[in-house]
Amino acid sequence: MSDWQPSALQQERLAYRRRRTVRSGVIAGVSTLVLVALLVVGIGSTPGWPRVRETFFNVDRGWEALPVVAQGLWLNIRVMLVCAVLIVVLGLTLAILRTLRGPIFFPLRIFAAAYTDVFRGLPLLLVIFLLGFGVPALQLRGLPNQAVIWGGVALVLTYSSYVAEVFRAGIESIHPSQRAAARSLGLSHRQTLRFVVLPQAVRRVLPPLLNDFVSLQKDSGLIAVLGVIDAIRAAQLETAEDFNFTPYVVAGMLFVALTIPLTRLTDWVARRQGWYGGGGGPV
Amino acid sequence: MNPRTAVAVLATIVAVGLSACAPEDEPTGSSTPSGPDACSKEKLALKVPGTFTVGTDKPAYAPWFVDDDPSNGKGYESAVTYAVAEHLGFAASEVKWQTVQFNAAFAPGPKKFDLDVNQISISEDRRKAVDFSSGYYDVRQTVITTAGSKIANAKKVAELADAKLGAQVGTTSYTMLRDQIKPKQTPAVFDTNDLAVQALKNKQIDGIVVDLPTGFYMTAAQLDNGKIVGQLPAGGQAEQFGFVLEKGSPLTPCVSQAVDALKADGTLAKLQQQYLTAEGAPELS
């Protein structure tokens, strides 16, 4: 170790910077505390607060409702996972169909465009009712009758039209020079799509895909209208017992708890795949 | 203004604003009307002076209402409401109906109705959130199905345990289904009874638990081959429908008094005879 020391001037600078950092930290902390305290006092002093607290934030009631609501959430999770896989497959297929070149593919392009137009436009609830009550009403042999299956089909149909458009946007955002370069290297159309266009496109649309996934997670509860019990419906059943809304808050917290890790995971995956590489890193 | 001052000012405004713009809580009404004419029309604390504002959900179903129009005075709940209003001194033209979703009827905070009538069962747990008038109808729960289903000939509650049953969300029908029948399959829970009927028609469920008058309506009007399996045994405490009022409403004792008077003079029995007759529904053991 050398006995080198920064100059007196440098030491003064360092000390000054440290003081400023501490000062910033203290101010930020105090400012946050004051704001939170004011909010707590402000909301707490409203005349309706005791009743709102009792009705929405009753801790005992929340614990009591947790197992039932969590059991409902398990349905949401299963529906979401199964549907998500089907949606990605169907959505990607539709997007590729729609970006095919050449006159021979015209019918496929038209089909894909019509599909996205219709299912993106139809309200999800309508599709769920139509399939969930309409198809079983046909009384066809061999078709399943369960609400959860037809509700899932409705989710897949609707969401695959959203996801197809997201994928299409990704595919069309790849600069033509990439295709040209790949073709000039001797790659076929199919190879260009598989090895050059799709990997870049998928990487670019990961964040909006996650958006749709989170949205799907919540909309998976819409199939409750067909009679199945998801997290929200379980909370509703609990609430009906004593008119206390805390179980809804519990369900909301569970959904948020599901979403946050998912977002972090996607960010991590995106960064690992060099998401910041193409468009330039953070400035 | 530098940013720190700005934040502090903003925070203060938020805090002060929240407490300042909040209305004072209304005083809690006494539990009994004081004085002989405390319930006279002029002294009632109404939402809209001179108007008896009543909430119910839409669509309003038979046999509780007729033609989805609460204001025609037909159907049991409509008729009882007008009878109560008359007892309190209101002319029929002074009764105004409002659409109030079932869930909104018991959300905390001020209500826009004087009372809500929506086949809401009285329970002690619910009383923590709202006021109830005296009960205006004693409820019995029934199981209905279609002819030829596997529970069509059930005589005992135990025979229903294997069936896939449905009920409307937030009703005591669901509670009775869960607690009395103890079904082995998760019950199907629907937003409205109409959806439950659709599922029953589709054979997605084997039967529906509903209150008796609704069961009559479903089997007679909504199903082609509907059948009432039977009435569930009454629970420990008799279940009653009551008017819902805002928690601590000064109107509650007056409405209860009116309901009690109508019960005593036989008006309720007469209206039940007219709109909800209970013959032809066997008891399940």
From TrEMBL, chain B:
Pfam families to which the protein is assigned, alphabetical: SBP_bac_3
InterPro entries per the UniProt record, alphabetical: Solute-binding_3/MltF_N (IPR001638)
Protein name from the UniProt record: Extracellular solute-binding protein family 3
Domain (Solute-binding protein family 3/N-terminal) ranges: 51-279
PROSITE patterns: PROKAR_LIPOPROTEIN
Coiled coil: none
Record's keyword terms, sorted: Signal
Signal peptide: 1-22
